[in-house]
Every structure is written in structure tokens, then in C-alpha cells.
Write a structure and sequence with these properties.
alpha/beta, 51% helix
């Protein structure tokens, strides 16, 4: 089963399109690990996948604490995504991807700024060989995203001036990526990218809640999955908060699909 199929299956099983960004801060490694697993166990019924960032992996250790979280997620039936934002030369990118996949991650997020040849091609090659996924970063959710992803560039193939994120969306489609990240804080960008990707590449939208992103707007604009972190993990009751967000997003997702049929 491909990563895209894993995600679709998980979403249908839990009736959720919520990816939990389990990026906690804790005073000790043991506390970080125990708290992460506690939140994962209490919220998993309302999720379709788990995402970890380097702020969690670095203090825990990839083949130590992080792998325990990955193992727990797999026991709970959740696909796992490493938000590595891979962005180096090809040989380095290949090794980075191999390490994350060997640790158990089902997909990695990569930054298309480095291009294809001697850039991200080795990541895709490794992913296909190991039956894993690659998600392309198209437009981030924070306020400064426009300085890089929103800058106007000349498309080398057409020589037209277009926003950088449109070029990245086209690359995600051309490279047959397993997903594209577009911030939930920019529904207009999601809509624009969805028009480029059609239904070939699912959109993952981070930034719901803590960064100001709405729950329904990104789904209505074309997002397939919402990545939610601090709003859930910092809540007094993470499980109840995850359930509430899941139900709101899933209703929007169903309405969106019904309109398109």
C-alpha cells in the first residue's frame, strides 16, 4: 500500500482528516517522551496521521525516543510523517531520507528550493525503493512565507513571471509527489494550488488554531488534510479538542466532496 493509500485508508477509518503535529517542549527527555505518548494515546481516535518535527526528534534521538513514538503510532494504526523540510545537495538528502525511513517514518516533507537534479531526485528514488512518501513544501503557514514562497520569479520553461509557490505546485505535480504543504492561514493559496494539482496530489495544511488558521476555510479551499499542533497539544483536554476539530473539519470535508459530485 502506498503512502497516499495509507492516508486515505486511515482517514476513512477514523473519519478524520487531522494530522497531529506532536511538537512538544519539555524540561527533560523522559518528560517529553512520556507526555508525547500520553497525548498520542488519548487523541489517536480523532486523527488520521502523526507528524513530528526536528524540535521533538533532536532532544529525543531518532533511534531512541522518536522511534518509540513512531512505534506507538503504528500500533495505533496511524501513518507517520517526518517534517524534515529536506533542503540540501542530493547525496546528503538521500542519506537524510534513508535515516528517517529506517527509523520508521512513512513519509518526509522536502523543500523544492534545491531543485530536482542532484537535489530532491535522490529523496524520491529512496522513497519509491522503500515504498514511502514524499510531501513537497509549497507555501508555509507563517507570516514571512511571502518573502520566499511568494516572491515573483521567472518560470524557466515559459519565461513568464509567476509566484514561486505556483512553480513549486507544478513541480509537486510533475514529480508525482505524495502531497503538497500549503498553509491553512492562506486559503486563497490553497485554492490556487488545488487548481494546479487537481486531485492528483493531496494538500496538507498546517497553521490551524495557534497560527490563526480556520478549520473550515482550508478544507473548503481544497485542503485534504489539516495539520494541527499547539491547539491540541497545549489544550487542557487534548482529546476533547482533537475530537471537536475533527468533527468540524470532517463535516466541511464531506460537504466539499458532495458539492463536487
Amino acid at each position: 500500500m502506498s503512502f497516499k493509500q495509507q492516508m486515505e485508508s486511515s482517514a476513512q477509518k477514523t473519519r478524520s482528516n487531522i494530522v497531529l503535529a506532536l511538537d512538544l517542549l519539555a524540561e527533560s527527555q523522559s518528560r517529553l517522551l512520556s507526555r508525547s505518548i500520553q497525548i498520542l494515546e488519548s487523541t489517536h481516535a480523532h486523527l488520521c496521521a502523526l507528524k513530528l518535527n526536528r524540535q521533538a526528534v533532536l532532544p529525543l534521538g531518532l533511534f531512541e525516543g522518536a522511534q518509540k513514538i513512531i512505534s506507538k503510532a503504528k500500533d495505533l494504526g496511524l501513518p507517520t510523517i517526518m517534517d524534515a523540510k529536506i533542503n540540501d545537495i542530493g547525496n546528503t538528502n538521500r542519506v537524510i531520507a534513508e535515516y528517517y525511513f529506517k527509523a520508521g517514518f512513512d513519509a518526509v516533507i522536502a523543500n523544492p528550493f534545491v531543485g530536482w537534479e542532484e537535489g530532491l531526485q535522490p529523496v524520491f528514488d529512496v522513497a519509491r525503493k522503500m515504498n514511502r512518501g514524499v510531501i513537497i513544501l509549497v507555501y508555509m503557514s507563517h507570516k514571512g512565507a511571502a518573502e520566499g514562497y511568494g516572491q515573483i520569479v521567472q518560470d524557466p520553461s515559459t519565461e513568464k513571471l509567476i509566484p514561486q509557490y505556483r512553480v513549486f505546485a507544478e513541480k509537486a505535480l510533475k514529480w508525482k509527489a505524495d502531497g503538497a504543504v500549503v498553509g491553512a492561514t492562506y486559503p486563497d493559496k490553497i485554492r490556487e494550488v488545488r487548481a494546479i494539482l487537481n486531485e492528483n496530489v493531496p494538500i496538507y495544511s498546517p497553521g490551524v488554531g495557534a497560527q490563526g488558521g480556520d478549520v473550515t476555510a482550508p478544507v473548503e479551499a481544497g485542503a485534504s488534510y489539516l495539520i494541527v499542533g499547539r491547539t491540541i497539544v497545549e489544550a487542557r483536554d487534548p482529546a476533547e479538542t482533537a475530537k471537536r476539530i475533527k468533527e468540524t473539519a470532517w463535516q466541511s470535508f464531506r460537504r466539499k466532496r458532495q458539492k463536487s459530485q
